[in-house]
Every structure is written in structure tokens, then in C-alpha cells.
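Quick log. Single chain, no ligands specified.
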Amino acid sequence: AALAFRFSYLQIKQYNHYQTLAENNRISLVPIIPNRGLIMDKNGVILAHNFFAYTLEITPAKIDNLEETITEIGKLVEISSLDRKRFKKFREQSHNFESIPIRTHLNEFEAAKFAVNHYRFPGVEIKSRLFRHYPLGKLGSHMVGYIGRINDRDLTNLEASGELSNYKGSDHIGKSGLEQFYEKHLHGITGFQQVEIDADGHAVRVLSSNPPIPGNNIVLSADSKLQEIAETAFGDRRGALVAIDPKTGEVLSYVSQPTFDPNLFVDGIDSENWKALNESLDKPLINRPLRGVYPPGSTFKPFVALAGLEAGKREPPYTIHDPGFFTLPGSSHRYRDWKPSGHGSVDMQKAITISCDTFFYGLAMELGIENLTGFVRHFGFGKKSDFDIKGEIEGLLPTPDWKKRRFKQPWYPGETVIVGIGQGYTLVTPLQLAQATAILANNGVAMRPHLVSQIQNTQTGKNQMITPFIQDKVELNPNNIAIVKQGMIDVTMPGGTAASVGANAEYAIAAKTGTAQVIGIKQNEKYNEHGIDERHRDHALFIAYAPAEDPKIALAVIVENGGHGGSAAGPIARKVMDYYLQGKLPTTETVKENKKLTGSAATNAPEEELHD
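-> predicted structure:
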């Protein structure tokens, strides 16, 4: 009677409950990973794509003796020590019931050989997975970025954003560059299959299927050929280059040197390569355009000049007599000009052309630090640009309040003096310097810099264009900006600090050279780059836009420890502008010349270049 009552209760009263449990045991929900979107340059050249490959995977929870199983597998398919290390690392980051790759990229012979022996290895199976590949290798790697295996921090972020369910079955996620910033567009939407399984857990049939939606493709404003020319022009030197279309904010080239191969990170980088990259003195993993901070040196002077003109401190025909130094009232300390004998009579336009330090020392002092930094902030200095790669640094525009918070010290007049020539506490990123040059070329209109020009919907085929966006606009007196621009044009003319860069150019170039100190020198000591360690030498900087009358490209170049802007950074900029504006490729002679210039200081450079 008791048994009859219990049977009745379970089979009649609890029928719906146990039917649901039975159906859940019978049906398995299997995620279908979507194809990740492509990354292409402006001409359709593929920078990142996917391919299918066989992987051999182990589910640790289904295996009693893991080490013995791996050893036996190794008798059929080669398992290297690197494979074992990678498996151990992935296992530490995964749950015990998840399948973990022990070998990737199996060829068809290896896959077939294991398949006929599959019955011997419960808990081990062959899968076909999508892998990311970067066909151009190191080219543009800091721009494109890379994907890597999802870790605990990624899972936490996905859960917080409500995206975790869309990553069921996915192993990888964007870790840096555009791969990271446009992850939501590139990843796609995960699909699912309802699969009927038997008591042994084997699939019997597919009951229903909800196909995945592939990720969208992204198209860059950068040209891979221009990128190649720019990176090659650096030779083996460290540094950065950013080129922008002033009218739209589109980034045309984005260089961080040295670079690295993003393919190393896709399957999990091995310890040997990681150590080589992470411990290198050249810091190849640092995204220099965003995270490298440098004193702007004399490239800061055109913006200081504009601040002085707009404030009415240096209205034409104002001139000074430059004796080769500047002294503060009531002080005997001399702030030296790069030319010990001085430049004689100097007005604003000439001060930019010959890079007269004395002129800008006095101008900065009259403006005051608050007025100076407040004005140049409109050109993007001291703040993030809302760029479409994460990790941007703000740089630094110093103020008395900042110094008081940072050092618990007052601000001294001499600190204002050296800000006028881009030294002291002032720090900028290469992206900020390029953006500031683009704003100047665009007469005070700041367009948001961006790398992606359009997003292609892989379902509809429609393209979503990235609309140019005005971030800031400073009203400038046309006469004032004309003076600054003419001074920059004269920089590339005979007598200017970058005359060699403008030589034989078929278009007008407006530019400014710069040299930023890495270590200080004593008051009466002469700087001798050959007498100090290479990594302590001055940084070479160069900003330019062209054609000067109708700018289509604005750029900033920094060569770390390169010495002189006109001779080290200028030739790199010229090659980029020549190709972008005229389609000219560097000749064998210019490549050799560049190696000579970037390898050591140019001994035949004009006097202005050697001391700017």
C-alpha cells in the first residue's frame, strides 16, 4: 500500500516536475561561437581575420590520471613541453569541467590518427575551433591590438556589463588596441543548438538550432602601405608617429616603435617570448602614441606664440633684442638660448622660424602660467582625446595648484620661463602633439581623432560611417594664426631649422622642430651627445602639416634619444607626407640616408638643427 501510494504520488502528482527534469537531462544546450569580424585598412587589406583548425582538448573532470593520459596521447600526437606549460596555465584559469586545449593546429593526419584511437581516451576529444590571425604580423600591432584567452578579470567585466551570456563557449576576447575597443562589434552574437543526448552523454540528434550572428567588420582610416613606409622609416630607432587628417580627425598612420607580433598572444604567449618582450630595454609592448609621455621641447613654441598674440602680449611689429640669454628681474640666473651669441632683433614670426628661446622665455613670463596653460589646453594638451584605443594618458600641463598638491611646494617664476620652451614639468603624448598640430592647421577647430572610419554590418551589408565630431573650437584672430603659420612655413625654407626637410618638396610644408632634454646639464656646461649614454641623449621631435595652404595631413614624430628634430625626426615625416600627398615611395638612396640620420646625429646639419 505504501509503495502504491508513493508510485501514484510521484507519477501523477509530481508528473510535470519530473518530466521537466527528464527533458533537461535529455536535452543539452550547445553554444555556437560566431565568426569574429574582420579588421581592414582603408583599401580593404586584411589586418585581422579568422581560420578554422583542429584542436585536441581534455576535460579534466572526466579523467582519473591526467598526467598518464597526456603521456599516452603523446605517443599518438606530438605534445611539446610548451603545450604542457600552456595546458597547465589554461587549467589554472579554467573550471575543472571545461575542455582545455592540449594541442592546437593539428593537421589532418594527426586528427585522423587520434580519431581511430578516440575510444581509448574518454574525456579527450577533437574539436574544430576558430583562430585569429594577423597576416601582416608586426605591422601596426599597437593599432590593431590582439585577442587572448578570457581570464577571471574578463569574466567579472562581462558579468558587470551583462554580456556574459553572449560569451558561452567563447575562449577569447579583445585584449588591446582596436580588438579591445570594438569588442562588442567584432564578437557577434552567440548561437545555440538544442541537442538530444543519450545516457552516455553522446549527441543523438539536433532538436532545434538558433544560428550565431557573425561580428561586424571594421574599416580603418589608415593605409597599410603608408603604415609600412612610416615604420620602415624609423629603422631600428625607438619612437612614435601619428598622422591625422585635420578636417575629419581620421588617423592616417599610427606608429609605435619597436613593435611586436600579435600572433604570439592568440594561443597564449610562451614564457620565453613573454620574457623577451617584457624585459626588453626598448619596451616594445608600450603603446607610445597613447602612453609615452615626453617634454614637447620647441614644438610647443607655436602654441605659446599663439597664446601671446591672442592675449595681446606680442602684437606686431613687437621685437626684442636677443643677447643669447634671458634673466628674470632681480635675478642673476641666466636662461640660455641655443645660440650663445644671440639672434639680434627678433619678432614673433622669426622667433618661430629660428626657434629663439630667449623670445619665448620672456613671453611665457608675461603671460603667466595659468593663462598659458589655460589657452593651450584648447589644443588638446593636458587632457584625453577620446581616442578609440583604451589606455590613453592625459599628459601634464603644470599649474601652481598642481605643484602644491604634488610636491607641497610653491610655484616659482623660473618654472614658468622654461614652460615657454616646452621644458620643465610639461609632458605630452605623441597623439596629443599630432592632435594639437591638426587643430592649428584647422584654424582652431578640434576634430575628435579616430582610427575606424566605418563599421560594416555583415548581416545587412550596410556600412555605418563614423561621423566626424567637433570636440572643441577656439576663436582665433586670422591675422594672429597667419603669423604663426608663416613662421612654421619658414622653418622648412632656407635658414629655417628644418630647411633640409623642405628641400625640393613639390608642396609647401609648415613645421616645427624640437629637442627635449632627457637629463639636465650644468649651467655653464655644453651638451655633448657623444659623451653620454645613448639612452640619455635628447629626444628628437618634429611636427608638421601639408600642404600648408590647404592641409590634408598633420603629424607628429618623436625619435627617442634621436638628438635633433630636423635631422632625426624630420626625414621620417617627409617620407610619410611624400607618399600620402604624392604617392612617392622612398628610394633605396633615401632609405640608406634615413638609416644614417637615425643611426647617429647628422654631422652636416645646420647649426640651428644641432642646438634647437
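Confidence is low (pLDDT under 50) at residues 594-612.
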